[in-house]
Amino acid sequence: MIDKEKFHVFNYVKKDEYTASMDGMRYMLKKKDKEEGSVLEVIIWPEPYCYAKTPEENKQRTEFAFTAEGVAQAADWLNEQYLQQKSLWELSKKF
User: Fold this and answer.
1) 3-state SS, one letter per residue, for 44-76
2) Tens of pLDDT along 15-36?
3) Other C-beta atoms within 10 Å of 66: how many?
4) Looking at the whole model, is its pTM more than 0.90?
């Protein structure tokens, strides 16, 4: 699980994509520019493949405000998705 108190990736995401994994669930946080301003896009997908090699239909996406608070909300969402889809993440570790 992601500890929000230690999840300080906002300054990193300002410049580059941040990727990591958590027991079968891979995830990416990245800045996405839109007409109305930047947002934080969060993408999750099952292991074993990297983002580029995972079919688009296996990826789940959501967006948050591009702020430090948005990163904290993203951490909450990632933890929720990890718990809600735990069987998918455990299954993906077997491949």
Assistant:
1) EEECCCCCCCCCHHHCEEEEEECCHHHHHHHHH
2) 999 999 999 999 999 999 999 9
3) 20
4) yes
